[in-house]
Every structure is written in structure tokens, then in C-alpha cells.
Amino acid sequence: MMMIWSLALLVQTATAPNALPGTSPLLEEADYAVRMVEGIHRFLDRETAAAAAARESRWKRAFRTRNAYEASVAPNRERFRRIIGLADARVPYDAPRLDVVFGGAVIVAKGSGYTARAVRWPVLPGVDGEGLLLEPDREPVARVVALPDADWTPEAIAGMSPGLPPEAQYARRLAEQGVLVLVPVLIDRKDNFSGNAALGCLTNQPHREFIYRMAYEVGRHIIGYEVQKVLAGVDWFSRSEKKTPIGVFGYGEGGLIAFYSAAADTRIDAAGVSGYFGPREGLANEPIYRNVWGLLREFGDAEIAGLIAPRALVVETAPGPVINGPRLETKERKGAAPGALVGPDPRQAGKEIHRVLRWHMQLPGTPRPLFSFSLGGTSRISEHGTLNAFLEALGAKYDLNLHGAPPGDLRTGFVPEARQRRQFNQLVDFTQAVVRGAEAARRKFWAKADASSVEAWQRSTEWYRRYLWEEVIGRMPDPSEPLEARTRGIYERPNWTGYEVVLPVWPDVIAYGVLLVPKEMKPGERRPVVVCQHGLEGRPQDLVEPKTPAAENAYRRFAARLADRGFIVYAPQNPYIFETQFRQIQRKANPLKLSLFSFIIGQQQRALSWLSSLPFVDPQRIGFYGLSYGGKTAMRVPPLLERYALSICSGDFNEWIWKNTSVDQPFSYMFTQEYEMPEFDLGNTFNYAELASLMAPRPFMVERGHRDGVGIDEWVAYEYAKVRRFYTFLKIPDRTEIEYFDGPHTIHGVGTFRFLEKHLRWPE
Length: 764
Prior knowledge:
The chain is an alpha/beta fold. Helix content is 35%, strand content 18%. The strands form three sheets. It has a ten-stranded mixed β-sheet with strand order 1-13-14-15-17-16-18-19-20-21, sandwiched between helices. Strands 2-3-4-6-5-9-10-11-12 form a nine-stranded mixed β-sheet, with helices on both faces. Helix 7 (207-217) packs parallel to helix 14 and helix 9 packs across helix 11. The two termini are 24 Å apart.
């Protein structure tokens, strides 16, 4: 086979051959980047549609008794708590009365049988809940946290401000029935505070998205923060000397928080949910602040309801808030992720209801969840149907005779926006503190890694490599399609021949790239390979013979230059192309505990298998060299795929957690359209130094232009110093380098080329 290949090289003409010897001809003319992205979407659509059935294997429900059931779902509950970001211990709170924590709460209204006070309560260090407390004039029959939709104020559902019909003023209705009602403020969907005005970096991200982006990177979530505020109220309720039932009730976003709170904490006796319940398979189209890592892999709304069982659940399938998306971009404000709220559709909710009832019917002595349907209007929740069922679940009765007039707000000059700003700023400050503590969290996470020798390091880091792949990136099964390459000659140059290559990976998912093969190889000779990776919106051809000045300036034909030096070069097409189309891959993948890189790794596995099978390739000498998003690939793929002999990261290496979460640097991803960048809990597990350490003892290099706007030298140097120190401690300092050059976001190709020739050198 080697001799046949060598002879084939000798008889090449001025026109590139149709196919690489040993492969099938690639006959179809197509844009394979388009085909790749569309195929991944189809794959994810199928997986999402099949998620409900597939998740059954992750539950081991025992229906013998209530205790047996709750014990059997306890592991699922703990996983649910983790993915919604319940990572922090709440502030201990032992005050006898909620309304004296800050020296006495202000009476803001007198309603029919109750008093309304403005209150705050401690939740997390530096984070308060804030809103209203509606205290009945008699001994409370129950204690309830009532949650408004994100764009409603506590005053609106208490009837103290205009805008909602009486039937939507459910906090007031509950208080009139003798319920002690705590009404928190939720972070709203405006964008007034989303950005840094001092830097000139303002965005149209809803406040919820702005918090979500930074929190997600460190294993927290806007959902988790608001559940914490609810549970802090439950903490207070639970300390009451006279024990009464505890409930949560909410509409829209408040319905989500109420639903999740009851699933997370078994102290809640009953949950009422309106305007939020139904199939979650369309989660990728909802606002990004509802994106939860791995949610659909284990939890639909029915499974979350199963975490509430055997406690009471009342669901009103009223139409939820309609949100068309973030505010339209302007010159000053942009960068928000797309996402809309259009429901839930009460008719679609029946699918989840059927699944809920199937489980509840198996629980002995468990009250059936109540579902009511409201096909129009904002909500019908205070009509005696749903609220009566909710109160009955709490051991109370809804009395129509107790309806009173809405109370007037006694405050003058009250500005809800100031309260919203306080709540927003507290969560920003808290999350930034978590970011600052992430380095210490990573040290603790890595405590079991043994760097006493290269051998000890390789043994002890297998667990970390597996964790990165499975828990942070999301692991797909190995490629399943037959390894059958199709190729087509597209370049014939003096020193090398170039081929397009298409490789099947999974159903509908392909790998595509360009292979450059040097001429005049000796019979039986095996050459090293450099996998050259493009950046955002790039194509393999940009690295060979670019057609635009921008591609020429960024890549400087580095794939062709390496082929001229005698390397075999493979330039893959990665799926981060076509803007929103590829970013929505991340949105569809995350709820399945997958990411964009789950697919890239599979494509690389397939490409490495094929390259290693070629008779002129030395499979022990395959290196990786990527720029920008290709540098991001260099930090995630070679550490996991040990067939790579080395990795070079150009134009991307950074203090990556700061890069994703900083609110005081203009190059932060907090201010840009790259909403796919956050990776759940990466900050507490892997920064770029830790990712680079997984390359060891294989060589690793960084290429950094002083004028590269993706970051600053100080951050790059800070993070790389850890890498250099680590390789030194392993007694292999010659296997890592950094090269700075006076240039922008581009391939330099000087020190990196020497590095490749040093570590992938030809045999003597």
C-alpha cells in the first residue's frame, strides 16, 4: 500500500486527482459547513424529542411508601439542586420576626384583614430578599411565598399599584384569607443596568441574562439565586413557634421559581404554579436565562413535579407572559441572546400532565395534583377554583366573603426601580465575589491530583479528564458511522497536493476538512501531521489560500506554509460558523448535558482515526495548532484526545474565567454577542492553566500578540505562569513555551513553527 501511494504521488499531473488513493471520490458539490451545522441541529432535534423516554433510566422510583419514594428520588433532587445553582449556604437567620431584621419594617398599606409591610431578609452574604410582607390580623392559617412574574412588582400582585386585574392580585387574595404572605422582588427583564457605562459597554441583555452569564460560569444561576430567596423565607417560616403549612405560589417566571423551590425543598407543603407548566422540549427557544445544564437529560416539568410528590401541587395552565425577545439592538446597546416566551400553550400542557398523573397514581395515599385550565386572559388564579384548591392543600378554605378592596400604597415617592437596582447590584457583587474565590475552589477540586512524577500525574488525572469530558463539555458516544472517507482533489501546488475530505461521524453529523499532502515522500515514509484550526466564522480554505484580506491577515496561510515545510496538514471545518445558527447548537445541546465541543471532539476523534490509518502518517506525531476559536479548541480537544502529541493555543489563551465574567474590562464576553461562551461551573473546576496541565507530559505552547484585543498580556502571563511552573515541577520545562510578538489577533508562525519542528521532528 505504501509503494502504491508513493507511485501515485509521482504520476500526479498539474490537475489535482479526483480522490486520495484508498478513499471514495467526493462527487457532490455542496457547502459542507452548511451541511455540518444543519446536520448537528437535526441530530439534537431528534435527541431532544427522545429525551422524555431516555431520561427514565436516570430514575429509580420506589412507590411502596412515601418515605421509600422520597428516599428513591433524593439523588435526583440533589442533582436538580446542583444544576439550578443551589451551591451556597444561606445566611443563618434566627431573628424572631422577619420585619425587624433591619430595625423595623415600614407599614406601607392596610388591607382587608391584613397589614402590608416593606421588608428585607438576609439570604446570602451581601444578598437580601426584598419585597412585601402581608400579615393577617389573626393567627395565620398558612405561610406562603407568593412570587410575581419577573416584570411584575410585589405591589402589583398585592393590589397596591395599578396594572393587574383583581383576579391576578393573588398575594392580596391569600392575605385576605388569613395567610401570612411574603412577596419577593424578582430580577426583571429590562436592560437598564446591564453593562458598564463607565467603559461604554452597555448591552440589551435583560437583567436576568446579565446575571445568568456570569453566574453560569461558576456553577450558579439566576434561577438558583431566586430559589435561595424563597428558601430563606421558608427558613423563617419554619422557625415559627406555631407550626402552620408552608406553600409557594407564582405566575410566569414566578411560577417557575415557585415550582423549582418546591422541588428543591421538602419543607414546602404545597406549590401553586400558574402560567408556567408544560413540555420543555422547546427550551432552546426560550430566553437564555432559563438555560439549565443537563435539565432535559433528567428533568421535564413532569419529573420536577415528581420531586414535589407526594406533597400537593396545583397547576393552572393559564397562558404565561408573552415576551418577544430582548429589546431591539441599538448602536449603544446590543449583545443579548435571542429567546422568546410564547406560552405555555394550555393544550400542550396535557402531555406533561399525563406523565405526572401516571406516577402519582402509583403513590399510595398521595393527593392527586390538581390541574385547571385557563385559555384566555392574564390569569384566573384568584377565582375560587385554583386558589381554593391551593388553600385546601394547605388545610385552609377559600371564603368568597373575605374579598376586600385593593389597599392604597401609603408611601409617597416610592420608586420600584431603586429597589430593582439594589437587588441586581447585590447579585452582581455576590457573583463577582464567587469568581474571585474560584481559584481557591479549583485548588480544592484538584487536591487529589498527584504531581510528584509524570507517571503519578498521568494516573491521578484520568479522573479529572473524565470529569471535564462528561461533566463540563458533555460526552457523546464514540463515532458510530462507518469510517469511510470521501475525498476530492482541490489544490495542486509545487510542494503538496490538497484534498477536500468528508467523514461520517454520527447520523446526520459529518466531519469536513482539507488535507495537504507533501510530495516526494520516500517509499514507506511516515510524516508528522499538524491539525491547523480556524477561528470564529472561518473555513479550512482560509488557512491555505484565503480569499479575503481579513483571512489573510489573521491566518497568514499557516497551513500552506507548514505543508511547504514538509508537514502533512489537516485543516478541519469546525461548526462555529453562521452566527446564531451555530450558537443555537449550544442552546439545544446544553439542556441535554452537551455542548458545541461535544460534537467537535467527536469530529476530531473521527479525523484522528482516519489520519492514523493513512500509510504515510506517523500516528505518534500529530500536533494541534489553532487560532482564536481554534485556540479555544486547542485548550479543550487535545487534553482529552491523547492521540494528539502536542497543542498550540494562539490568540485565545487567557485567564478564561475572568474573560467570561468580568464586568470591568471592555473585552469581557459579558458585553458581547458570544452568548454561547459560558460553560457550567467551569470556574470552579478548570481554568486554562488546569486545561493545559492535562496536556502534560505532552508539549504545550501559547502564541500571544501584544496588540491582541481578546485580552491583555498581564492576564495571559498570570495564567501561563502557572503552566510554566507546573511543567517545571514535573521536570519537563522544555516542553512548554510562550511566544509574545508585536502584533494583533493573528498567527505569527515563528516560535510556534520551531516548536512544531522540535517536538514533531523527523526521525534521524
